[in-house]
Task: inverse folding
C-alpha cells in the first residue's frame, strides 16, 4: 500500500489544467517534471559568498573541468566554512591535488602529503588567520533552527500517519511533517535546502535536541586526523557512493557539490590504502589549478545558482513523487524513500 | 543512545583472547577487521555457474579491465538469469558496448541501438532459446525462502527491541532478527548472502507476503522498455550511486558486481538523455570484448569467489559494527544503518 503525500485528486488538480479535469487525467509527472514546473518564487538564490569555483586541470581531451561547491549556511559548520574561504582567498588551495579516490566512498583533495599513508613528503604550511575548529560543532542545538517550532505544526499529521510509520511507509508519513524517519537518527528532515538529521523525539536522557547535516551523495566534508582533531578545512572530500551516514556527527560537513560532480566521481580509483594514489601512480593525482569564492570573481565569471525551497508546495510534490513514482515507466510506487534519495534540486541561473 | 547488536561484553570476548580480559580491552575492531577474522567455515563458495567474467577493452594505459558478476540464485529472477547465461554462451554479449553512464545512478551496457534515445541504428538480432520473462517475477512469495520460519525465532528479540525501533536504532534492533526496518518496505533482511526487502508484517489486504532483491550499489539489473516488457537480459546495468530503491519491484535484478566495479563506476558520464553517450561521443562507448560463464572457462582461468554467510556470528558482528562504529576514528556510533550501507562481504579465493 502506498499513501500519497497529498491527495491524488489534489495532485491531479496541480498536474493538469482545470479544463482537463473532465477528461482522462494525464500521466502523473515525474519528479523532474514537477521541479521544472515549480514557480520562480519557490526558487531561492544562493549567495555568491557561499559558492566556490574549483578549477581542475583540463581533461585529457583538453576539455575544461570546473566544480562548483555550495558552502554550508549558518548555523552549521561555520568555523570550517570560514577557514575554507580563507584557504581559497589566500591561494592555499591552488596547486593542491586530488589524492584519494575510494570506490563507493569518497574523493579527497588537498595537500598530497597530509595524513596520506601513500606519501612521505613535507606538508604544505597553512595560511595565517585560520580559526579553531571543535568536534562539538559537528552538531548544533535544535533551537538554532527553531526545530521545535518547525515540527510543532506537524504533530497532528504525524499522529494521523502513525500507523503508516510502522508499516514501512515512512517518507509519505513524515514528509508531510517536513521530516523523514531515518535509519541513523530519530528523524531526518529538510531545512532551508539541506538534508539534516536530529535526535528530536526521545530526549529521555535530558540532552538538548541536536541537529546535524548528513552524508548524502555529493556532500563535501572536512578530512581530519584522530579526535580531538576536527580538521582545518584544508583537506576536503565528497561522497561518490551510497550515503556513508556512519560518518555523520563524526566529521564536519561543510557543503555540497552543485555542479561538475562528474569530474570527481569519474576519476580513476586509487590502488593504495583507503583509495589513496600510491607514489607509483602519482601521475593520477588530478591537479586543482584554483579555488575561488564566487563573490570575488568578476561579474562575467561569477556563476549564479538557486535551490528549490524545501518548504514549498513543489518540493512537497517532488519528495512525494520520489517516494511514490507514478510516471509511466513505474509499476509499483515504493511508498517511501530515505532522505538521501530525495536530492534537493539545485540549478544554475542562466545569465 | 546506541544499543550493541550483541552485548559489549560478548563482543569483547569475541574480539580479544580470553587471557586479555583482565587488561584494558583492545580497541574495538573495524567492520573490515571482523570480516578478516571470520573463520573459514563462515565463508560460502559461489558456484562457477553463477559467475560471469566480463572483459572490457583495455584501459588507455593498456591495463586489463575484467569485471566479475555474481548471478542471482533461485528463487529470484531465474528467467533473466537463464537468459543471461544464454546470451553469454551464444557469444551475443561479445562486442557490445557500455552505452550509458548516468552520474549517481547507473552504468548500462548492451546493444548500442537498443532503446537508446541517442542512437538510431539497427538492433542486433537476439539469440534463439531465450525464455519468456514476466514482471510478476520481480518479487517472489515469502514461502519460497521460508520467510516465516526465518523470522519466527526473532519475534521475541523484536518485541524486546521494540522500543529501540521507535528511537531510531533500527538496525541494532532488527539485525538481531536478521532483518532491518526499511524506508521502502516493511522489512529488509539478508538471506543467503543477498539484501532483500519484504512486505512481511502488515498483510492487511490478504496478499501473500512477498520478498524481492533490492537496488544497492553494485547490483546488476535488467534494462527494459515500458511495462509489460520485462527485459530479456540483453541490456544490463549496475548501480553506481546512492541506492535507487524506487526501482525495486519495478525492474528485474539479476546479480551483482563482485570484482572490477571500479572499471564501470569510473567511466566518463554520458552527456545525452539519461546519461547515454551521444553519437558525437560514441568513441566513449567502452567495448565489451567477451562475457563468459566461469564454469565454461578452463581451470586456470576460472575465478573462485566466496561470500560471508549472512547467518553466521561474524556477519552479525560485522553488521553491528557497520551500524555502531567503535573503531578508533569514530566518536559517535550511528546506532543504525540502512541495508545498502551493510554490503555483504565477498572475496576472491586465492588459487
Result:
Amino acid at each position: 500500500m502506498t499513501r500519497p503525500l497529498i491527495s491524488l485528486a489534489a495532485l491531479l488538480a496541480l498536474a493538469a489544467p482545470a479544463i482537463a479535469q473532465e477528461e482522462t487525467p494525464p500521466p502523473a509527472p515525474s519528479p523532474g517534471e514537477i521541479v521544472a514546473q515549480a514557480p520562480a518564487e519557490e526558487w531561492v538564490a544562493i549567495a555568491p559568498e557561499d559558492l566556490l569555483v574549483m578549477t581542475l586541470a583540463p581533461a585529457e581531451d583538453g576539455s575544461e573541468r570546473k566544480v562548483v561547491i555550495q558552502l554550508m549556511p549558518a548555523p552549521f559548520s561555520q568555523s570550517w566554512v570560514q577557514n575554507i574561504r580563507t584557504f581559497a582567498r589566500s591561494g592555499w588551495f591552488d596547486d593542491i591535488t586530488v589524492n584519494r579516490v575510494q570506490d563507493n566512498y569518497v574523493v579527497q583533495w588537498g595537500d598530497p602529503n597530509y595524513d596520506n599513508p601513500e606519501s612521505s613528503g613535507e606538508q604544505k604550511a597553512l595560511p595565517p588567520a585560520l580559526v579553531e575548529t571543535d568536534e562539538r560543532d559537528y552538531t548544533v542545538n535544535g533551537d538554532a533552527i527553531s526545530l521545535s517550532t518547525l515540527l510543532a505544526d506537524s504533530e497532528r499529521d504525524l499522529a494521523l500517519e502513525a500507523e503508516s510509520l510502522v508499516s514501512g511507509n515512512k517518507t509519505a508519513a513524515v514528509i508531510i511533517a517536513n521530516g523523514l524517519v531515518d535509519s541513523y537518527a530519530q528523524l531526518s528532515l529538510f531545512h532551508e535546502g539541506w538534508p539534516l538529521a536530529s535526535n528530536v523525539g526521545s530526549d529521555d536522557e535530558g540532552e538538548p535536541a541536536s541537529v546535524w547535516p548528513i552524508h548524502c551523495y555529493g556532500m563535501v566534508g572536512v578530512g581530519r586526523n584522530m579526535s580531538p582533531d576536527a580538521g582545518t578545512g584544508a583537506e576536503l572530500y565528497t561522497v561518490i557512493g551510497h550515503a556513508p551516514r556512519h560518518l555523520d556527527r563524526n566529521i564536519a560537513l561543510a557543503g555540497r557539490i552543485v555542479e561538475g560532480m562528474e569530474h570527481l566521481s569519474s576519476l580513476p580509483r586509487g590502488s593504495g590504502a583507503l583509495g589513496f594514489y600510491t607514489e607509483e601512480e602519482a601521475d593520477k593525482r588530478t591537479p586543482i589549478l584554483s579555488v575561488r569564492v564566487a563573490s570575488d570573481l568578476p561579474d562575467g565569471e561569477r556563476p549564479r545558482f538557486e535551490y528549490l525551497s524545501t518548504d514549498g508546495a513543489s518540493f512537497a510534490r517532488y519528495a512525494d513523487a520520489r517516494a511514490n513514482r507514478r510516471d509511466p515507466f513505474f509499476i509499483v510506487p515504493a511508498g517511501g524513500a530515505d532522505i538521501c534519495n530525495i536530492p534537493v534540486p539545485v540549478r544554475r541561473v542562466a545569465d
